[in-house]
Design goal:
- By secondary structure, the chain is an alpha+beta fold.
- The chain has one domain.
- Helices cover 46% and strands 25% of the residues.
- It has five helices and three strands.
- Helix 2 crosses helix 3 and helix 3 runs antiparallel to helix 4.
- The longest helix has 56 residues.
- The chain is rod-shaped.
- The N and C termini lie far apart (111 Å).
Length: 190
């Protein structure tokens, strides 16, 4: 009996070494997996930040359309080449002669974070962060304009293209840009 016990004493060291090696491998795999998940989460956060900034630019333009409805409509009519005083007449030509984007350029000129910097309680004490979040309206384009005789309104369909940008230097990611397009209608009684 003594002979059998003596033979089993040497198995403990390999079992402990195998357990330590397995535990070390498991811990290393968990650390690597956690690092990868964290990187993916940061990419998703940057996407959401840029997307919400682009939405902010769209809301900025929509606010301008609401505050300045006459100027917004007149800018769109001028972009189509018609006289803002006459608008688009039923049965008239499909396009005007003197097209100009100057009015739309003026409308979108200050819809960005360069002329209107981000401010508020979110950015108090985090000045470096507010320089890394930007939005701008890339374009305002009238894609259709017509006169609705049933409601006696002149209607324009305008496409807003906005870009939100977020800078994140962690991991060498740099700038993340997201583009958003929204189509809205502007109506004016005639």
């Amino acid at each position: 009996m003594k002979n059998i016990l003596v033979n089993k004493k040497g198995i403990a060291i390999p079992i402990v070494l195998l357990f330590c090696l397995t535990t070390l491998f498991y811990a290393g795999a968990m650390i690597f997996y956690r690092k990868e998940v964290k990187q993916e989460n940061m990419i998703n956060v940057n996407f959401l930040q840029a997307n919400f900034l682009a939405q902010s630019a769209v809301q900025h333009v929509l606010l301008k359309f609401r505050v300045l409805p006459q100027e917004s409509y007149d800018s769109g009519v001028a972009e189509q080449g018609f006289c803002p005083l006459w608008g688009i007449q039923p049965g008239g030509p499909a396009t005007g002669i003197m097209k100009t984007t100057a009015g739309m350029d003026i409308l979108k000129k200050d819809c960005n974070t360069v002329t209107m910097p981000l401010a508020g309680s979110l950015f108090d004490g985090v000045q470096a962060m507010s320089g890394d979040w930007k939005y701008k309206v890339a374009s305002l384009t009238v894609i259709s304009a017509f006169t609705d005789n049933a409601t006696q309104e002149m209607v324009q369909t305008i496409q807003i293209t906005a870009i939100g940008s977020v800078k994140d230097d962690r991991g060498g990611r740099g700038w993340r840009h997201e583009e958003m397009r929204k189509t809205v209608e502007i109506r004016r009684k005639f």
